[in-house]
Amino acid sequence: MQPTVQEVLSADIHLLGDLLGQAIRRLSGEEAFDLEEEIRASAKELRSSPSLDDARRLRDRLGELDVPALRGLIRAFSIYFDLINLAEQQARVRALRRAAIEGKVSSSQAETTEAALRQIRDRGIDADQVAEHLAQALVCPVFTAHPSEARRRTSLEKLASIARQLDRVEYGQALPIEREQAIAAIAEEVETYWLSEVIRAERPSVLDEVRQGLGLVEARLLDVVPRVYRKLEEALDKVYPGRDWQVPAFLQFGSWIGGDRDGHPHVTHDVTAEAVKLQQETILRFYLTRVQDLWRRLSHSDHFVKHGPAFLESLARDAAVLPEVAPGTEHESYRLKCRMIIAKLNRTLDYLKALPNTHLEPAPPPPPGVYLVRQGLLDDLKVMTDDLIQAGAEAAASGAIRDLTWLVQVFGVHLLKIDLRQHSNRHGKALEEIFQSTGLCPNYLELSPDERFDLLSKELQLSRRIVPALPLYSPETVEVVDTFRTFAAILERQCPEVLSTYIISSTTEAAHLLEVLLFAREAGLFRPEEGISRIDIVPLFEALMPLREGPAIMERLLELPIYRKHVELRGNLQEVMIGYSDSNKESGFLQSAWALYRAQGELTELGKKAGITMQMFHGRGGAVGRGGGPANHAILAQPRGTVNGRLRITEQGEMIADRYGHTAIAERHLEQVLNAVLRTSFPDDSESPDPAWFSVLDTLATSACSHYRGLVYESPDFLPYFEQATCIGEISQFKIGSRPARRGGAATNIDQLRAIPWVFSWMQSRHTLPGWFGLGSAVTEFLREDPGRLELLREMYRRWPFWSTLIDNAQMILTKADLTIARLYADLVDDQDLANRIFGQITDEFNRTVDVICKITEQDELLERSPILRRSIDRRNPYVDPLSFIQLVLLKRLRAGDEPHEELLSGVLESINGVASGLKNTG
Q: Structural domains in the chain?
């Protein structure tokens, strides 16, 4: 009888744990192994019978050890976590494979595109409606370099290698010799992992991050994307038969890596240009290998294939442009066409290498045959595909060449579309300097928002240029000008499809968008008199007030003729980005989620009234405090009518490796996203939320925000507690990304701290506060006024995806909290009276929140109905707890100024890495 997935998972964990144990014994000695076993057993016993006194005793026991011993323990537990995570990932893959083989469909495994199509067909949606929908659709995950992936690229590569060997093993199916070879290879990787550095010695550069992102795309997405499209077309054929489905490339991918300059001094115009070039070189080299593979496959002889005139004409045109490509004597015209494409790809690479790295230098004209846009390459593939079909070679036409066509449709000759992002205050400061130098306005930033709006409106109606060719401004202003000029130069001479989106962080007034439109005009990106606009200007509404005022801001802009002209030139589409992180930090978990929900609905209604498409871009992080949680659930929880087939969403930090680190899981994740987008774009009328529920959320959100801000912003004790009871100071020295942890210098208040390290530090200290605080008090007060309201909250949980997703995310992050260990972090606070006050408030709210969630979900304990997730968390706890205790010991010594400082700091950073792997949430 075949073992169950859970049995195989247990076997994998035992195998990997045994191999790690053997490596520790062999390389560090029996004493190190025995110490790890002792601490693990103590932590397991403590977990079964939680006691603050026993927790302090375990911490003090660890306090007796020297730094090398502590760091050895950190290494052991951290690597074990990475191996557990890997084993669980393999279990997910195995479950998917078995379900496919056995034809079983569970609730989670039903989240496929075919399942979504069957649902919407049963709702009365016909094939024409689906086709029309897909023609206008856009689903675009956008990869960011936000620093919440704690692991080195080296570590990720070793784990990927172990995963490949586990794939070979497949207990019960591999031959004995194959299993032995795979286990030997795993043992080698585990041994090397034990002897490798687990944290970065230096911060990665921006271009290092670009290369790491490209590595993931090459290793996973370029294999996965054709599979996803093929499965979608097969699903359409099954559900809506009798139609020749040609699915448009509505699944696209974007990136902020190399374009996100908000608070990041190292992302400059030349870095962005280099990132574009790296991307292009990567995808063009990949296409070379795929076309070479086509050459091997398409050995059709002219003696057996009668070519059509379109194909022969294309060969004649190629011969005129590429006389160096010999026609050959083998009478294999498809192979000749492949050689022509290869020559064009090489010519494109040569042209890229010849381009100067700055917009200030003239560029050579592109030679004939260069692929500046995807269409040229698509035309060459299409003429071959069509000719194969007319020749009857339909198997070849629907094979590798079809997969390559999908890849070119999705990735073009640029790979990922790069978004540019900058903080609104950088544009304002730059314009003030420019206006002063031209005499247009001596005090631009001192004007009121209305005065700034009026000034910019008038200036945009003129066709003059106010920035000279060689701007003599401050370096900061010159960099802003150069960013837009580089944007224009890349579109003009390198790749018109790689850039289009410019995001304005901290958008708080309508003038912020007009400032960017003015810079776009100066760079020639916006030329309304010629009917040209080549830039999508995207406001990012992040904090509570901008989210509330966002619809009014956009309405004012759309009523301005010059801005409305810009939107018309961009296809009557306006994208708006909503930020989950800063609104959460400012107003708390519940108020943030509700403000985002409200803003989307109002913005979408505004778009309908204005006759434009209002497209949402969701800036979600990995942790619940930053909008995290299952992506497909989050999509289904959006307000009705706000998705409508068009969605951009960030993929950040550790979630990129988690969702895209294995080909099968990446395919599954993308299918789940497409399933959710299709379903929410054609909602069932019976799923409409009751309008009365909105007033309930208004009440709950206001109350939750009041409790949250009462602790975080209004208590004078809170900031010292946060700084001393978490590792926020040490996280700023963690070299997990090229971006600084703070905007500016040291934080004097919560507002100055970036949202990612804010969430990261609360996860590390096991409070997990950003993912739940305020919810318990709000619901408790709501029920105190009328206990009968509990049934209303339960009905909302059963019927309203927004509310059920919010509650489920909260119970997940509450389960990852541990207040016994959190109390030990409170022991680090100098003023223990202060620590007791703040920790007491946190504990009370924690208990209230657990209580109300169990009541709403009708469970006796959290995650009662999610046994797999609960088991995963429980499996980790005996290993993550010791890392927290070790971190506490090291933090105390480090802050006391003990020596050796660098070794202590390294130990703290290693423990941060380990806890992040154990909890599977960083930022």
A: 274-411 (1.20.1440.90), 417-619 (no CATH), 689-711+773-865 (no CATH)
